[in-house]
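Input record (one chain):
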Amino acid sequence: MSSDSSSSSSSSDGEPFIYESDDDGWATYTEDYCFDSLILMRENDPGVTGLYASGSFQHIQEMTDEDWVQLGHDISHNDYLADLNLYETLDDRKTALFFQGLTRSNTLKRINIVNNGIGVSGIQSMIPFLSNSNLVSLCLEGLDDIKTEGFSLLFQALHNSPIERLDCNDCSLDSIEIDSNIIPKYLKRLALAGNCIDAEGCREVAKLLQKKDPTLISLNLDGNKIDDEGILVLVSALQTNTSLKKLDVSQNNDITSKGGGLLLKLVNDISSIKATMQSNHTLQTIVLPALDDDYQIYIYDALRFNVDYYPRRPGPLKVKGAQLHSRQRAVMCRLQGVEQSNAALYKHIDPFILPEVLSLVGRIHGQGELFVALLSSIAGMISTVNREEFLEEQKAFYEAKLKAINADLAAIRNAKSETATLENDQHSRKRLRQN
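The corresponding structure, as predicted from the sequence alone:
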């Protein structure tokens, strides 16, 4: 067990350091040092803000059931402990005893329980504490028997907590179920790496991305069983999501070039200028499986715009960089399975701003691209001019027809008026003769 803040130092992305999986990361804490920290913690020493325990330590191996309950009590009554790290120490029984004592803690912010033999019953024994805790980070890594039920219990317990980070890596989760009504309100980072999550699991995860006012900024699905169908589910959920900044789908070997094309289309949809403008401009990092270099390159380029120019400028810059560059556009159309037609692209540009667009192409991409753009836009310009002439001719024709119709109507009305006058005169003369 450790006593200083080094056990919760910051990682490179500014987040609290949770767990370093290599041996050197744990070897910095000697058994004597950790045992001394435990004694000082029980004395409520303000210098002890973190504890570390390993199942390899003799004093941990010798702990009785009463000792585990007492350890929970001691932590509950401590005023300074913020970090608790338990490595290969617990099973379901010890977990129940420990959390029987650990009924509350106003200071604990981060708990890391790694490579412990905890199943669903162990998770159940944590629920009373988790439901009322002030934790912002919970790492349950290498618990290979918590199953779908245990994961659902965790989500339910953490619903109203301030939890921001939840790691359930390598927990043999073959499926997950997420109730949209009990999603942790402040969850920012979810790690589910090294499980067996497939497309159905992705549909559950998508609920976190589609909920009103989403909070998730990092999602780690590395090393699961996600295929192209699963990528389609995630991409569909991310079309309108404006919170997620990092997605890790590496080591999912069933993802093919089709999935790569879907991810590329997500961040830079080449099908039209409007589609490009409406692409996802929030994602800044996508950790990909093994795909062709072209996917890696073009996804990276789109993400670079998101990183450098979010939130206002990525869309226009993606249009300039891809839509208005014929070779870039050709490659992206191929990668996304979109039919390429430069003429169709320029046909949808307002002719009044087309000269400005062509000038922009020349300035950004050079004379060669300007020549291509001119050739591609000519058909659209001619088509626009011809259609304008056709419409003018149609307008003149129908105006003449309308004039003729109005003349006929006037003649008919005049004839009716004259007939009515004649009939009135005849009636008047008849009445005079009768009188």
